[in-house]
UniProtKB/TrEMBL annotation:
InterPro entries: AcetylCoA_hyd_C (IPR026888), AcetylCoA_hyd_C_sf (IPR038460), ActCoA_hydro (IPR046433), ActCoA_hydro_N (IPR003702), Butryl-CoA_acetate_CoA_Tfrase (IPR023990), NagB/RpiA_transferase-like (IPR037171). The keyword Repeat does not apply. Pathway: Lipid metabolism; butanoate metabolism. It catalyses: butanoate + acetyl-CoA = butanoyl-CoA + acetate. This is Butyryl-CoA:acetate CoA-transferase. Residues 7-184 form the Acetyl-CoA hydrolase/transferase N-terminal domain. It comes from Pseudoflavonifractor capillosus. Belongs to the acetyl-CoA hydrolase/transferase family. Butyryl-CoA CoA-transferase subfamily. GO terms for biological process: acetate metabolic process; acetyl-CoA metabolic process; butyrate biosynthetic process. CoA binds at residues 222-226, 322, 345. Coenzyme A-transferase that converts butyryl-CoA to butyrate. It is an enzyme of class 2 (transferase). Its EC number is 2.8.3.-. Residues 281-437 form the Acetyl-CoA hydrolase/transferase C-terminal domain.
């Protein structure tokens, strides 16, 4: 039987496909933009009609739209959404008692699925149309998908002709022979991530970082307004021959490519290619990646491997955080016990960039934030809030940057760290931070005031 015959034999409607799901099943929706449309909607309809279909556990992460199965009135009683990395949508689902975070180190995800995830009963993901060789491209996201599909009892793909084809190596596609059911989707527009506009604080942070980036550097840019500001400044700069090796690919990379800044010719690995493990942004980004040989999508156990990251000379890692204490502990995923995002690959790139020859890791934040009552709070605090999670330890942080300055914390003793961190805090909070440092015995009387 040839590939076309297999395809036709396995073709189903969305409703026919989700009929295989049983009470108590574990169902994987993939990651970020991989989440299915029609299959999700068909399963939500089935849940609405069959009250006995209950106890379903879903896995996903960084959802760019609310899964239809979570919108049912009794969703909290019948399903659980388990997230590898929370978006704003998943934070709201947490408040409703539907979503729970699964702590991860992103580089280990493929091993989790192969060795530690107990069950994958059904996997349902969006893919590009089958090619002449019988393969469906994972498109904008490889992350851990190949390992997930290896473990799945039943594999269902939802074909979306709008999904671009991203080139890469192993673990970037699945053959029709390994698929159980094919659903031809309605061709929905892909989920997009709005571009965060940089604030004045983001711009000030970006200017400091860009001043330390040399020609030929290799970049990892995270999500948010500040990385976008860095990308915009780099596009306007005199720097040349930059490379990309990043977990998440966003629109700012297109700006760099169109400005002629990206050649990747100095990369020690994958020379000439901008490497990523998933992309999230605008349609402009997705169209730019489509069949573009200068972009290379790869599984997360390769992209986020510390040894692979550190193999690039002048590796520059740029990530955001929500809170840093005077000891240098970075909390980038929670505010107290309120979960915000996830640990993701921050540890991987912080460690990998520092190990790189000439490499630098930057943890960035605005000096203050304003709560819902309009009160200002310092992001640089004596100790991280009770219940907050440490994402990057004090031993691993390299550069810390706010709009008030930048400090390299490597090799500094406790009092030097406290002095350096306080020096880039908002002026309105510096005296109380000094008082707290004195009380914790990490402030010398001879320190500058």
């Amino acid at each position: 039987m040839n590939d076309i015959q297999l395809y036709l034999k396995k073709r189903r409607t969305a409703r026919e496909a989700v009929a295989c799901i049983k009470p108590g099943d574990w169902i994987d929706y993939g990651f970020c933009g991989q989440m299915p449309y029609d299959l999700d909607r068909a399963l939500a309809e089935r849940l609405a009609e069959e009250p006995e279909l209950t106890g379903l556990n879903f896995r996903g992460g960084l959802a760019l739209r609310q899964p239809a199965v979570t919108a049912l009135p009794d969703a909290a009683e019948r399903i659980t959404w388990n997230s590898w990395h929370c978006s704003a949508i998943e934070r709201r689902l947490m408040e409703q008692g539907i979503c729970y975070y699964a702590p991860i180190r992103f580089s280990e995800m493929t091993r989790y699925y192969r060795e530690n995830v107990e069950r994958v009963d059904v996997a349902m993901i969006q893919v590009s149309p089958m090619d002449a060789h019988g393969f469906f491209s994972f498109s904008l996201n490889t992350t851990y998908l190949a390992a997930m599909l290896e473990r799945a009892r039943t594999v269902i793909v939802e074909v979306n002709p709008r999904m671009p084809v991203a080139f890469g190596g192993l673990g970037t596609a699945i053959h029709i022979s390994r698929v159980d059911m094919v659903v031809e989707g309605e061709g929905h527009e892909l989920d997009q991530l709005p571009t965060a506009q940089p604030t004045q604080e983001d711009q000030a942070v970006a200017e400091q970082i860009v001043s330390l980036i040399p020609d030929g550097a290799c970049l990892q840019l995270g999500i948010g307004g500040m990385p976008n500001a860095v990308g915009a400044l780099l596009a306007q700069s005199d720097l040349k021959d930059l490379g990309v090796h990043t977990e998440m690919l966003t629109d700012c990379v297109v700006d760099l490519a169109e400005a002629g800044k990206l050649t990747g010719r100095n990369k020690n690995l994958d020379r000439g290619s901008a490497v990523f493990t998933f992309a999230a942004g605008s349609r402009r980004l997705y169209d730019f990646i489509d069949r573009n040989p200068t972009f290379m999508v790869s599984p997360v156990d390769y992209v986020n491997d510390i040894h692979v990251i550190s193999a690039h000379d002048n590796m520059i890692s740029i990530n955001n955080t929500m809170e840093v204490d005077l000891f240098g502990q970075v909390s980038a995923e929670t505010m107290g016990t309120r979960h915000i995002s996830g640990s993701g690959g921050q540890q991987d790139f912080v460690l990998g960039a520092y190990r790189s020859k000439g490499g630098k890791s930057f943890i960035c934040c605005s000096s203050v934030y304003t709560d819902r009552q309009g009160r200002a709070h310092s992001r640089l605090v004596p100790t991280i809030a009770p219940g907050s999670v440490v994402t990057t330890t004090r031993t691993n942080i390299h550069y810390l940057v706010t709009e008030y300055g930048m400090v390299n914390l490597k090799g500094l003793s406790a009092w030097q760290r406290a002095e350096g961190i306080i020096s880039i805090a908002h002026p309105d909070f510096r005296e109380e931070l000094i008082a707290a440092a004195e009380e914790m015995h990490i402030w010398r009387r001879s320190n500058r005031r």
